[in-house]
Design brief:
With 347 residues, the protein is of the alpha+beta class. It contains ten helices and 15 strands. The protein starts with a strand and ends in a 14-residue tail after the last strand.
């Protein structure tokens, strides 16, 4: 905010997507809650709140579905469950606020969203515990805001603040799974007009389910196999932003090999088609795990035996060494994205 020559306050509009990290940190410092039972409270970079419930911790997360319009109920359950799973927890109870657009809402629209939520909950053993529904003025599409509650034994809690210098950074499943499926689903007609076949578009749209945007199972396997110091599911802002969030939460530096990051061929193709960088494109479905180097072979063996490909993409370093990447043998800054690349499709 600044003053112009006439003394009028001039401000700027924020870009689509997450609030800038500096702004969010400022807001949380001033307005974040304080309670002795709040083990992990509002903090930029962490995935969920952690509340002390005696012999275990309650995990609480809320996340909206803002880019997708297709299968938004299924999306909402999975992306919220992911944030519970990366903290070592088991997602248990889901609440949904469902806002339907005035002038478009029908009983069939409501039924479809509830059916998607039910199917996703049934698949993961989650109970739909409540929420709110309404037909809302001013919307051009349905919105679902999910809230997930889970639990974890005290000694099993994992936070991103646990990443330590010397640890190895591992990526489970390629990027950007969600972004690739999202483009195929939301730009179906445009892709057809550009010469993509219906069979190809349909196959890629199904990436939402296979390889899928859920990382609950690989997160559970990882924690059973190795001493995991931190986990994260890169969402808005892609894997590049996910890595930044880990560094921010743990107060560490990173050295990342960009050439080692596996990118879906279909994702690379669709991102190129619309001028997007796959490293900054929404990436639910991939799991970042931070662990000691000596435990990487066991982790890789267990995950790949279960059908989850694993790539070592970098190393944690001291904060004073900064955030760096390597590409084609050259050291370059780790890419930064002020907003998710997928937002370009909706502007």
């Amino acid at each position: 905010m600044r003053m112009d020559d006439n003394g009028t306050i001039v401000t700027h509009q924020l870009p689509v997507g997450k609030l800038p990290a500096e702004l969010l940190e400022s807001l949380l410092r001033r307005y974040g809650g304080r309670d002795p039972r709040l083990v992990v409270g509002p903090k930029a970079g962490e995935d969920a709140a952690v509340i002390d419930f005696g012999d275990r911790y309650l995990l609480a997360k809320t996340d909206p579905i803002t880019f997708a319009t297709d299968e938004i109920g299924w999306y909402a359950v999975n992306v919220n469950a992911n944030d519970i799973a990366v903290m070592g927890g088991q997602p248990r109870w889901f609440l949904a606020t469902i806002l339907l657009p005035a002038g478009q809402a029908t009983p069939e629209m409501a039924d479809a969203i509830f059916a998607q939520i039910y199917a996703a909950c049934e698949e993961m053993g989650i109970a739909l515990a409540g929420g709110h529904t309404e037909v809302t003025h001013g919307l051009d599409r349905p919105l679902v805001i999910g809230a997930m509650l889970g639990e974890v034994r005290r000694e099993r809690l994992v936070t991103k603040a646990g990443a330590r210098p010397g640890d190895v950074v591992v990526l489970v499943k390629p990027v950007p799974i969600e972004g690739t499926a999202l483009i195929a689903r939301e730009k179906r007609l445009e892709l057809r007009a550009r010469g993509y076949s219906d069979d190809w578009i349909l196959r890629v749209a199904k990436f939402l389910h296979d390889p899928g945007i859920s990382i609950a199972k690989p997160a559970q396997i990882a924690q059973k196999t190795a001493p995991i110091h931190a986990m994260h599911d890169p969402t808005e802002g892609g894997i590049a932003t996910g890595l930044m969030e880990i560094a921010q939460a743990a107060g560490v530096g990173l050295a990342i090999d960009l050439d080692a990051i596996p990118v879906l061929p279909e994702g690379r193709r669709l991102c190129a088609e619309f001028g997007l960088d796959p490293l900054g494109t929404i990436a639910s479905g991939s799991l970042l795990a931070i662990l000691p180097e000596e435990n990487v072979p066991a982790l890789q063996s267990a995950l790949e035996a279960a059908g989850y490909p694993v790539a070592v993409i970098g190393r944690v370093q001291e904060a004073k060494e900064g955030l760096w990447a390597f590409q084609e043998g050259r050291r370059v800054p780790l890419p930064r994205f002020l907003t998710d690349e997928i937002a370009k499709l909706f502007q």
